[in-house]
Amino acid sequence: MLDQYYVRPTTVDRIRRSWIASAIDAYASWLSAQRYRQRSILQRIPIVVAFGEFAKTHGAAEIADLPDHVEPFVLAWVADRSGPKSKAHTRQKMAHCTRNPIRQMLRLAIPGYAGRGRPHLPDNPFERQAPRFFQYLKEEKGLRPASIHHYQFYLRQFATHIERVGVRNVARLTPLILSGFIAQYGPRVDWSTLRNACGSLRVFLRYLHREGAIAKDLSALVEFPQHFRDSGIPRSISWEQVERVLAGIDRRSSSGKRDFAMLGMLATYGLRACEVASLKLDDIDWRNDRIKIRERKAGNTTTYPMATAVGAALIDYIKNARPATTDRHVFFRTLAPYEPIGSAAVTARATFYIRKAGIQVPRPGSHTLRHSCVQRLVDANFSLKHIGDYVGHRNASSTQIYAKIAVERLRTVALGDGEEVL
Predict the structure, then answer these.
(1) According to the model, what pLDDT value does residue 422 have?
(2) Quick check: is 393 catalytic?
(3) Helix, strand, coil shares of the chain as percentages rounded to 5?
(4) What secondary structure does DSSP assign to 40-89, as a single string?
(5) Is 99 an active-site residue?
(6) pLDDT higher than threshold 70 for residue 388
(7) Catalytic residue flag (residue 297)
(8) Which of 2, 190, 357, 422 is 20 to 30 A removed from 166 (C-alpha atoms)?
């Protein structure tokens, strides 16, 4: 494999004399299989070769010893190649570019190696007092993994707070501790985040009382933040602005073809980012011109007619830009390693193009195009029930807020004498 990238036989011989030559050769084969560019491979191989020599010099005798030498090597490598005037972010970027190929090689060479990464947080911060809580959420409440992940996040925040105030046993929880958490957490987050945190905490407290971990049900003491229902306006943009966003995508590149197809689906069908990211080739019925969206937030499956523009964009991407892979997902990263794109990336691309078009909207992202789809349906005089079914709302109350974006009809009521609505 190395012969494909190096012209001089002496260079290949020097690499193969390394005591970790087998791991390096396997890594080069993996990079080629993942379709990394030759330039990238030629940059990565010297780093892992130098790492092997560094580790051997500092006492490594077998491949299993290598992880202990990753950070010392990165520090030495960066220090040797950065000047005294180098900025901190430059050194951090250099450290990342040095550490990444070493970790990739070690993941191939050492089974179970994960690298340093972020400190691991416990899945259940209350494992001792409520070990079956998340099993309860899954089996009894029927929550999906994404919802359970939110419970984990909010309970970690609560666990950090009560540990800070010196409480390690939930049996010692008091109304003062609960109100203190809300008062401390509330100013740092948005209203909707605080509402979700309160809801998660109430469910947790009811469960603790049911299991006998606390003597009294304290859930009623956690009050939801006061907020006028439907006081906000959905962060939609006009359809003319949506067309401007789509027109700003350069469809000559692979990423442009992919992004045009993704954003077109967001705007046409009002999909969520996760629904676009999870779309598979098997969900596209070309014979009958239909697209099936499975496992939506409401637990249902929706089948849409294939819009002409969406179908053309998908064909252009799949034929001319999608990587050749056995994975059935539709949308992929455009750079190696070629993996299915995630929902966060879908949101990021939508945000990028909305800002590129110069459109000012609060929190731009994939939901901006979803809201714009609903606004277009409202303007076309569809009922809220039909709109909710179209975009996959769980209940009608989720759709009611969109009645406020019927601007022209509301303006008529405001400027008229009001008799027509009596």
Answers:
(1) 47
(2) yes
(3) 60, 5, 35
(4) HHHHHHHHHHHHHHHHHHTT--SGGGGGGGHHHHHHHHHHHHS-TT--HH
(5) no
(6) yes
(7) yes
(8) 190
Q: Label residue 414 by pLDDT band (50, 70, 90).
A: low
- Residues 46/28, Cβ–Cβ less than 8 Å: no
The half-sphere exposure of 143 on its side-chain side, counting CA atoms within 13 A, is 17
Q: How far apart are the first and last CA of the chain?
A: 80
Spatial separation of the C-alpha atoms in residues 367 and 344, rounded to whole Å: 12
Torsion-angle region of residue 279: left (phi > 0), alpha (psi -120 to 50) or beta? beta
113 counts as catalytic: no
C-beta separation of 162 from 126 below 8 A: no
Helical axes 21-33 vs 38-57, angle rounded to 10°: 160
In the residue annotation, 402 being an active-site residue is answered as yes
43-68 per-position pLDDT tens digit: 999 999 999 999 999 999 999 999 99
Catalytic position from the list 69, 99, 251, 393? 393
For 117-154, b where at least 16 C-beta lie within 10 A, e where not — what string? eeeeeeebbbeebbeebbebbeeeeebeeeebeebbeb
Place of tokens 């700003």: 248
Residue with tokens 């709109």: 387
Which among 251, 272, 349, 371 is annotated as catalytic? 272
Q: Which residue of the set 44, 258, 370, 371 is catalytic? A: 370
- 136: annotated active-site residue: no
Rg (CA), the chain: 27
Closest CA to 353 of 249, 264, 237: 249
Side chain identity at residue 31, one-letter code: L
Give the Cα separation of 373 and 406 in Å (integer): 13
Task: Kindly give, in sequence order, each residue whose CB lies less than 8 Å from that of residue 224, ignoring residues fewer than 6 positions away.
Answer: 195, 198, 199
